[in-house]
Amino acid sequence: MSVVRWGVLGGSSFARDNMAPAIHAAKGADLVALATSSADKAAGFQAYAPGLAVFTDYDAMLADPNIDAVYIPLPNHLHVPWTIKALEAGKHVLCEKPIGLQVSDFDALIAARDKAGLLAAEAFMIVHHSQFIRAKTLVAEGAIGELVHIDGTFSYNNAGDVTNIRHDPSKGGGALPDIGVYPVGAARFVSGQEPQAVTLSNLRYEHGVDVFAQVAADFERCSFSAVVSMRMMNYQQMTFHGTTGVLRLSCPFNANKADVAELILDRAGEARNVERWPAENHYVGQVETFCAALRGEIAYPCPLEWSRGTQATLDMIYAAADPA
Q1: CA 297, CA 223: separation in Å to the nearest integer?
Q2: Pairing of the two strands 92-96 and 120-123
């Protein structure tokens, strides 16, 4: 498969502004189809992909033999059923995070993937960016000595947007499902360690969903803390603190959108070292990596089994806040 032909299942604004352009720009990928019943939404995609075939029915697009893979940006509660439908239709799947809302969802997805013999993965784009690959390498090489503590923050404020889907518990809303996956997944990816126990889980709810989460956990050989919120000013950071150095990512989750992707390394007795990636697009990198995996050139670095570990941590956080 020299070029992977992609369809987008749903006309969300995120897909229009981020992932569909990334598919269109990625080497080895061709954006060929979109499924949406809205002509207005379709027009936004056709502005940069004028030859795009538009299906008004999701199942009709999945039945098209000219599509190899689909990207799914639907609301959270629809991720599992439509991923399974796409696999059953013979399509490889890249589904927006969180692909599942509980660990058992991942078990069903893994079973469907294995039965179909296809690639299915969660769109956890940050692990495809050079700043995270570099951070993982530095920590593994001992650039900050022994890793002692990891800290992450990710926040935005949508309090005034009461109709936002993130406020709807029936559709998988909440701060933890939406952005909690980022500091948890980032900590797991860079450290190569897994959480063993959640020691603090302070959740605040509105509209039936968590809008603030303060978390602490013990990993295998380090500690972890994080705050995620839909009620705080936009902010994001990841810090990895070791015995002889500190590594900080100043814009880890919306690289070159919220700010320039930057890695800052401070080591005892040495000048600060700063690395920057002002032009790299992690969405494009994600698509190119997915396509390379389909061609058998690499193993996909973020399989469902790995993403299942992040969901297991979120399940632990919810359970620690409400043991019953």
Answers
A1: 36
A2: parallel
Rounded percentage of the chain residues whose pLDDT exceeds 70: 99
Bridge-based pairing state of the strands 273-277 and 261-267: antiparallel
**Catalytic status, residue 257:** no
CA 59 centroid distance within chain: 25
Selecting among 41, 85, 97, 115, the annotated active-site residue is 97
The Cα 110–Cα 321 span in angstroms is 28
Q: Residues 123-151: pLDDT tens digits?
A: 999 999 999 999 999 999 999 999 999 99
Cα angle 133, 135, 140; round to 5: 95
Q: Which residues sit opposite 151 in a β-bridge? A: 225, 239
Cis, peptide link before residue 98, omega less than 30° from 0: yes
Q: What is the pLDDT of residue 323?
A: 59
List the chain domain ranges: 4-124, 130-279
Superfamily of structural domain 130-279: Dihydrodipicolinate Reductase; domain 2 (3.30.360.10)
Name the CATH superfamily for 4-124.
Answer: NAD(P)-binding Rossmann-like Domain (3.40.50.720)
Whether pLDDT at 180 is above 80: yes
The whole-number pLDDT of residue 162 equals 86
Q: Which residues contact residue 122 at a Cβ distance below 8 angstroms, ignoring those fewer than 6 apart? A: 95, 96, 97, 98, 99, 302, 304, 307
Sheet containing 273-277, strands listed edge to edge, beginning at the edge strand earlier in sequence: 195-206, 209-219, 223-229, 147-157, 231-242, 245-249, 261-267, 273-277
